[in-house]
Each structure stands twice: as structure tokens, then as C-alpha cells.
UniProtKB/TrEMBL annotation:
UniProt KW keywords: Signal
Stretch forming the signal peptide: 1-21
The protein's name in its UniProt record: Aspartyl protease
Organism of provenance: Dyella ginsengisoli
Amino acid sequence: MSRSMLLAGLVLAFVFSSARAGDDAPRPVRIPLALQHGLPTTTRATVAGKPLTLVLDAGSYQVVGLKTSVLGRLPVRFTGDTESSGDADGHVFTSRIFHAEQLVAGTLVATQFDGNELVGGGKAALPQDGLIGFGLLGRYQMVFDEPGGELRLYPSSAPSVLARECGSEGGPLRVERGVMVSDVQTGHGVFRVQWDSGSAADVLRPSAVAGRIKDADLLRRVTFRQFDVVGQPAGPQEFVLRQFPAPDVDAVLGTGFFSKHVVCLDPSRGRVAFR
């Protein structure tokens, strides 16, 4: 998850079904997804007709990110632009920007797009070939139904999606420095959390609980019995204590939370809900 928000020469064209469902609601784009132990949400996709496995990563600012080895077997064109990013240990990595055509994932089609080479640690170390990030997913209202094995994407203008899919209009969601953030209430105070379907675990920054929980710096895991998200109880919620590079948040809600709930994210209106 880079701190940078720059995207080089972003050119996207989407094919979106205009058909209407029986209740007069827009029919969503559907992307099948799968969960494997210890790995983030994954889908099967193709780029230029070549099969890939990609993480559905709403916590990554990229449109698409692909590993260097994967780019070597795809008909992509490097634009000559590069982008730098850093990790939690202070390492800086430089990735190349590439142009590619015809991404297909479920019923989502991007006829052309600019993506980032995945280098260094993080997602580049995962067994998947790359990721679809917030640069693409954030154009829609997202319904992550991991228990049902599907991501549903609705037009940003579609009405009542959160109420219909998650049972309420939810609560505040902010997009800050390219990541989606909400405040949660616990028995130890308020924490700022990032919504990140691309994280294989729910992680909590150790400094966030220093002084709030006795001997927190000696613990590997922390469980909040009270954990209220947008005013709705969701506890108990367990976190792994770990440093991470996401900016200005205390914790990341990843696969642990997404695997137990249907999560509705509407970045254009600044709302989030779950059931």
C-alpha cells in the first residue's frame, strides 16, 4: 500500500451492463472470489486473454498491479514512467508503469488500463499474479460478499445499494491518502481503521494500544470484546499486533472481518455498512 497517489496516464474504459434487475435496481457487475487460508481475497481473471489470479485489493491505490515475472509473459507496453513506494521498514522500491488491454474478471471488463509493476515485499511476495486495486474498484459501490463467494460492483450513482445489500445506510467512510477509513468504538476508546480486502489478516499497530492496554507491547494478539463499527456491534474482534505501512490509521480490517460479513463500501458518498 503505497503512500503515493500518483497514477501515470490513467486511461480506463469499462463495459457495464445496462440491464435492470426485476426490482428496477441496476444489475451489478459480478466478480467471483475465493478465500484460502492465510491469503487475501482472490479472483481468476485474464489480461489480453492470458489467465491470472489476482487479489481484489480495495486497500491498494493501484488500478492493477502485476508481478515482474507475470509482465514478462504478457503483451504490455512500458510507458517509461516509474513510481516509488516505501514499506514499514523504510525500504524504497521503484516500479515501472505499463499499459495493457482487455482485463476481464467475472463480468467486469476494462478495455485498456495503465498498471503498476509489483516489486519489493508485500503483494509482490504473495503467490497470486497481482491485484486489482482501489483505482478501479473505487469507481463503484462495492459489496464484498466473501461468505457468498462474490464481489458485486454497482454504479456510483445507483440509489439505495447499501440499504438493499447490507440492511442500512451505514455510517461515515472517508477516503484519506488513497485508503478508506472509518472510526470504530471499543472498550479502550476510538480507533481509526482502514478497510482493506487485500490484507490477509486484521492487524493493529502496536503504538495504537500503548498506554491503553496493560503490557500491550508484550502481546502477539489483542481481542476487543466491544467493537462497534458505524454504530453497529461487531465484537469480539481479534487483531494481530504488527507494524504496517498504511498511513495515519491504527488498524486494518482485512480477511478476518471480510470473511465473516457482507461489507458494503460507497467511497463516492462516504458511507460504509455491513451485515
